[in-house]
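Structure in, sequence out. Go:
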């Protein structure tokens, strides 16, 4: 979704904001803008990438020590200069940036129109700004008070940051449902949607909570609730290095993140998986071990790629722990009045920790008494703070819009949780348990082996890049991998792709098969191996092209398939962590071959903070 950056302090604000917007561009990239306040309030905005804004500002007066900036992912109104943020109030005194959606903006807009306001954009943001401005002008109150009054009327999600010509050294920000981090420097403050624009200046940050208002001057940060009571800011130290958010010589963040996976999976296992003692140490699990192991039911709640991790986990938890598992799209779960009992455990899976649907889904389940356990990548994120307990994936910042390393880290965490619970419950025998610990331990090395075959996958990608459609098939643990492969391909290459359980193919999708259709089989050795070979034969018999992810040494499929991508032999339970790697590389290289912006595919945003 949109990205927000703001600065107040002794530095020139514009370069800080511009650099921050570039770091946040993965969140939204259809337009960008800045507002800078020195002798006067200057607002510049432009449709397109942050670089387009930068180019349009060459030669302009950009001097200021306070300013706000925004990169947009359109919700209300098409991407255009006029709909880009910041917006300016009718009085001309205020400029505002906003991330989120004001749901009742239509009603507010009508009220303002009745009072004679006109609008220069189609956005809900401009409506909220006029509303705040109107309250301040008519009630003769402070901006802070006007914001509080306005926000009590607003439904929806927001982070807003406002610049005011009447208080030229002060930024006011407020949040509900969208993320906001404040970096504390020496006599200066940085505001951003996540820590990436802040990290190079300071590691001391405050995460603003819902219904909080921040009044920020160069050397002062005041936090209040909407009832005007002062709160003590909780200052945290960022555990992140600048190098983690830079490309480090790779052509794209996505490729860098694919190649980081041996390290990210290792980091995720490190300190948790202890082969020598045969133990898995996870404090979040240990604190709630009774509730977790005695759960009546586990419900995995997530979206997109994280939902696919939940599907893999369903197979693993049911197999190893014998606990019934349901996997829910958070967007459906939150609206459909689900039956939740006290003994239920919700596992919320999210890379960003800010996905609006997942956040609201767990809030609802929490109200009904479920234990909420987060499997999350971003420390201090909204879902992390809403969960009772959790385990971080430690994959580091994921900048490429398509999720790669977060997925494998989610699988590593979920597998460890399942193994730990199975051991506690006694639903796994010692031999299998120890075998799976070793299998998990060996994953980073095996991922490295797959990455060494990148050139082969690149060639395969180029061979099939002009296909119009793709079908992805898998069985058992590999079925969710097929779904993930199809999702990666459509996101990155804009080629239509569908994932199915391989056996389901004959109930409809097989009608699509002809000599132009590449069918990707995730067909490593597992309990279903013979069956998936039969499915492959069904495709070959109809002249479909078969690309297969296979285990090392699988001569049968090598002879049958048009192309193969080989992965090291492993237990079927950990196989998805390996088998998804060729899927990621295939999608990546097809996208690159087609000349597309793989890090920022059209219409997508990294952190989906609107429903
Ligand atoms: C796909 C992708 C999305 C996200 C989904 C959930 O590559 O990145 O499908 O997985 O938007 O996001 P998180 O995990 O941040 O909740």
């Amino acid at each position: 979704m949109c990205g927000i950056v703001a600065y107040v302090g002794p530095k020139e604000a514009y370069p800080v904001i511009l650099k921050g917007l570039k770091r946040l561009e993965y969140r939204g990239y259809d337009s960008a803008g800045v507002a800078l306040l020195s002798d006067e309030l200057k607002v510049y905005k432009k449709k397109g990438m942050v670089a387009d804004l930068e180019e349009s500002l060459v030669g302009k007066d950009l001097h200021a020590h306070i300013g706000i900036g925004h990169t947009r992912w359109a919700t209300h109104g098409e991407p255009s200069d006029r709909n880009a943020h910041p917006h300016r109030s009718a009085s001309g005194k205020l400029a505002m940036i906003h991330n989120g959606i004001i749901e009742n903006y239509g009603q507010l807009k009508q009220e303002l129109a009745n009072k004679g306001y006109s609008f220069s954009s189609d956005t809900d943001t401009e409506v909220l700004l006029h509303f705040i401005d109107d309250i301040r002008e008519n009630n003769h109150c402070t901006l802070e008070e006007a914001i509080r009054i306005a926000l009590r009327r607003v439904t929806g999600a927001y982070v807003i940051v406002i610049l005011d010509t009447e208080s030229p050294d002060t930024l006011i920000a407020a949040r509900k449902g969208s993320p906001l981090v404040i970096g504390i420097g020496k006599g200066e403050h940085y505001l951003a949607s996540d820590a990436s624009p802040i990290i190079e200046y300071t590691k001391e940050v405050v995460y603003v909570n819902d219904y909080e208002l921040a009044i920020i001057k160069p050397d002062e940060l005041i936090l209040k609730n909407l009832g005007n009571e002062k709160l003590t800011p909780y200052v945290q130290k960022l555990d992140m290095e600048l190098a983690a958010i830079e490309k480090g010589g790779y052509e794209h963040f996505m490729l860098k993140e694919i190649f980081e996976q041996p390290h990210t999976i290792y980091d995720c296992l490190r300190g948790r998986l202890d082969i020598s003692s045969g133990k898995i140490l996870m404090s979040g699990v240990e604190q709630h071990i009774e509730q977790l192991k005695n759960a009546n039911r586990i419900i995995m709640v997530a979206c997109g790629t994280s939902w696919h991790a939940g599907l893999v986990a369903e197979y693993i938890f049911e197999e190893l722990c014998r606990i019934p598992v349901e996997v829910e799209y958070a967007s459906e779960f939150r609206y459909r009045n689900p039956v939740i009992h006290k003994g239920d455990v919700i596992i919320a899976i999210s890379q960003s920790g800010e996905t609006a649907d997942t956040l609201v889904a767990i809030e609802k389940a929490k109200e009904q008494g479920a234990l909420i356990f987060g499997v999350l990548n971003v420390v201090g994120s909204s879902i992390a703070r809403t969960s009772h307990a959790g385990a971080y994936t430690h994959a580091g910042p994921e900048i490429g819009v398509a999720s790669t390393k977060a997925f494998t880290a989610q699988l590593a965490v979920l597998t460890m949780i399942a193994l730990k619970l199975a051991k506690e419950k006694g639903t796994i025998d010692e031999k299998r348990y120890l075998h799976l610990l070793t299998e998990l331990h060996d994953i980073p090395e095996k991922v490295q082996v797959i990455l060494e075959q990148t050139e082969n996958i690149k060639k395969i990608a180029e061979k099939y890049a002009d296909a119009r459609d793709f079908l992805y098939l898998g069985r058992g643990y590999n079925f969710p991998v097929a779904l993930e492969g199809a999702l990666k391909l459509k996101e990155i290459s804009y080629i239509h792709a569908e994932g199915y359980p391989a056996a389901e193919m004959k109930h409809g999708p097989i009608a699509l098969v002809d000599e132009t259709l590449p069918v990707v089989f995730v067909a490593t050795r597992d309990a279903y191996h013979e069956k998936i070979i039969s499915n492959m034969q069904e495709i070959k018999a109809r002249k479909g092209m078969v690309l297969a992810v296979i285990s090392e040494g699988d001569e049968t499929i090598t002879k049958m398939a048009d192309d193969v991508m080989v992965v090291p032999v492993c237990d079927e339970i950990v196989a998805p962590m390996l088998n998804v790697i060729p899927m990621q590389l295939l999608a990546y290289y097809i996208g690159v071959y087609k000349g597309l912006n793989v890090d920022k595919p059209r219409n997508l945003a990294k952190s989906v903070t609107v429903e």
